[in-house]
Amino acid sequence: MKQDIPPEHFTAHDQRDQKVIRYGLLAMGILFSGYLLAAFMGWLPRAITPGRQEVQTATKGLSNPYLKNLPQPIDPEPYLGVAHKGSRFRFDFTKQEAIVTRPDFQSENAHPRSIWIIPASVSYKGQSYTVTTLSATALLYADGITSVTFPPTLRNFNGAHELIKPELKTIILQRLHEAPLVLTPTEFISYIQTHYPQRPLIEGDIQ
């Protein structure tokens, strides 16, 4: 027995809903296509690019198999100075002199230590530099150092003796033609104030 199915009757409201859905899907398709095109052309910021890489924030980083093409560890030389024999230095290339910035705790082969011996000269890119100056904050960053030995070539202390860490107990001043001076922090401060009065800083000085 054949049964006739009555035709569907769409109200104006139904027709409007269908148009909204149809045009909404069309607009979403256009936007998605534009997004893919922009990603392919490299126009999108890294944060919203498909398959973006996570940023590694630590200098050495943590092992993570889900991160690919990880950035290399941050090079500390631009802001801490060049590492050489357990110390870090900046250079006055005009005067062929080196400025001590801090102990070297950041190098890959650096080990925790309590004794800091600063050399009298530094070799950098085939040139030799005489160590003459102590950065004002060199002793402030000497965490864990209990004994420091300064070379006889050092003559500018830049007020570094005013920022000694509490754990620093022994300061050894090497001298060219005399026995080294072994001083306590109090004796060291007095000695520097007497024999190395701080000169006024000149604009352009490297500390």
Write the layout of secondary structure elements.
Layout: H1 12-41, H2 77-80, E1 82-84, E2 87-92, E3 97-103, E4 115-117, E5 121-124, E6 127-134, E7 147-150, E8 170-173, E9 181-183, H3 185-195
Parallel strand pairs: 3-6, 4-7, 7-8
Antiparallel strand pairs: 1-2, 2-3, 5-6, 8-9
| Tally of DSSP β-strands | 9
Which class of secondary structure composition applies to the elements?
Answer: alpha/beta
**What share of residues is helical?**
10-25%
Rg calc: 33 Å
Main beta-sheet strand count, sense and barrel state: 5 strands, mixed
Descriptive overview:
The structure is a single chain. Residues 53-60 and 200-207 have low confidence and may be disordered. 22% of the residues lie in helices and 20% in strands. The chain starts with 11 loop residues before the first helix and ends in a 12-residue tail after the last helix. It is of the alpha/beta class and 207 residues long. It is rod-shaped and about 120 Å long. The strands form two sheets. It has a five-stranded mixed beta sheet with strand order 1-2-3-6-5. Strands 4-7-8-9 form a four-stranded mixed beta sheet. Strand 8 and strand 9 form a beta hairpin.
How would you sum up this structure in a few lines?
This protein is an alpha/beta fold.
Features:
alpha/beta, 9 strands, disordered C terminus, 22% helix, rod-shaped, 207 residues, five-stranded mixed sheet
